[in-house]
């Protein structure tokens, strides 16, 4: 087809399977889902069973001609995993069956390998509504409809497998009104490495190439200015579908919106919107949307429903904290009370999801994260990028070796060896290297970065050329390291300002972004904005005041001054700016240019070098799906260590959860402060930061690997860690005091690998 197909969001849930029983108690399995040959997500690994259950969902982007592939994999404890078989679900036949209006429906699919059925997989697909008059059936599907009418239904695969009776029944009879269907699809088996343009004999043999992802990103996350009602953007799909480009900062499917609204507190439509918000109407669909003028974003959801107005600081005397389960609450030190109600919005605070973001965003964030990880996996090159580094010269040797690597090697698997240590890098050493090297180059004493005030966020030091003559080469190196951390799914120790994350994403900063960078400068610009408006208002209405308005003339011009050591530097905000006076008519332009100048003054060359190194590893388009806060979370990991989450995602060898050594261990963990808990986590995993998803998403040498406590040695031994496998060897100590003493000695006095 010459016309680009429309894009739709649909929920896909992998529920459970019934596998052909062989022997033993069962096998451990997981399912990987591909949409048009692109990896969408993986389920968790199930316990041993011949009837495994996952109940994992993803919000997928599909076209009416998409094909969804489910690959069931057997997890082998010692050795490579083996593929049990695969199933395929084509979208167009389902749409045709339900006249384009698909509810949330279960489908039973055959698991096929080498033309042999290995069992059945139950998945849930929907809801999805498509105007089929806009999308004619593909040629292969039309041929099958003709065959169905003549009674000569044959299998669509090349092996000539007949359709099952349940499939004939569902294709022959229109059951659009039913709430559940059983459709067994037998199609061609396509491996994940097959090219997307390979010929296929599937019933919906229309594949989507790279233009699909490019158009998806352009439609969803186009970094253009926020939508205004005066513009008429291009629309996808039917007229009833919302414009995807409208509120891109919080785009979600209708089911999630409906679910959130059902659970939201009730409010009056006449109640005022939070400060800085405006309600508008899309002229095409007539649907209301809301504009947040503070951060220049738009969204469908009413901020009074979801309590989204959280950009303002808390009132004086208030503090925000989190429970051990991640529930957010607020403390009023004035009255010495606690509450779950956000004092800024009056709404229930809600809780954080497993990814460290609010629950209402978690589904969208998972879809974004799955897309980014799929891009990194698809561009991973064979081979290794090997680094041999000493701990004493960690930063300098890392700089020399990383800068010598060709660009292609940056996307190879990283293999690091510390001189004089026996450790083999199956991931743990690389995690520690990212942690330590980022800690070194972020150190303000090195002169490349500086703190932004009390928040301890980092920004580029304008005087970095004085601290280091080769500062531009170092910023190029830092960009490469940050890119490698994103590409390989590692965390760094430190974080930038939100304004800098916006710069990475190519988005414009606003006045609110300046508050955390330079609060005094922010207050000055805020005063300028209000005082000019007040003076203009008084002049227009002829109001007399005690102060002469003309005497309050601020004498501002389109130029900025700053002091660099003993010299005063002056930059024009625009050509001839030092002669252009700031007035009511041009004040917004002045504020916009001044914010941009303040955030970038003296650091343009450093920023360009950093971005050059970063984008040598990750493509800018891969990051466009995230906003600045999500990018910060992706790079810096989870901010808090939840002990209950840690305990719930722990496995034991030669111990049980009720063993006294295990009980003492968790008692020891709870007794530690935040710093020592981070040190303990670093001792076990190689890094003090958690990946997105918390302890349940810890990665080992072969993928996801939970924290493990194993009994080993005698009570005279010190605890040992295996960072590549997230394993702690805990000897059978006879008392809590002995366990505490040995663990503290291990985490505080040992360093490196191969230590006994």
UniProtKB/TrEMBL annotation:
The keyword Protease does not apply. Residues 406-756 form the HECT domain. The active site is at 724 (glycyl thioester intermediate). One of its GO terms (biological process) is protein ubiquitination. It is an enzyme of class 2 (transferase). CDD domains: HECTc, WW. Residues 170-205 are annotated as: Disordered. It holds the Pfam family WW. This is E3 ubiquitin-protein ligase. InterPro entries: C2_dom (IPR000008), C2_domain_sf (IPR035892), E3_ub_ligase_SMURF1 (IPR024928), E3_ubiq-protein_ligase (IPR050409), HECT_dom (IPR000569), Hect_E3_ubiquitin_ligase (IPR035983), WW_dom (IPR001202), WW_dom_sf (IPR036020). Residues 1-107 form the C2 domain. Pathway: Protein modification; protein ubiquitination. One of its GO terms (cellular component) is cytoplasm. It comes from Rodentolepis nana. It catalyses: S-ubiquitinyl-[E2 ubiquitin-conjugating enzyme]-L-cysteine + [acceptor protein]-L-lysine = [E2 ubiquitin-conjugating enzyme]-L-cysteine + N(6)-ubiquitinyl-[acceptor protein]-L-lysine. Residues 195-205 have a biased composition (Low complexity). Residues 271-305, 312-345 form the WW domain.
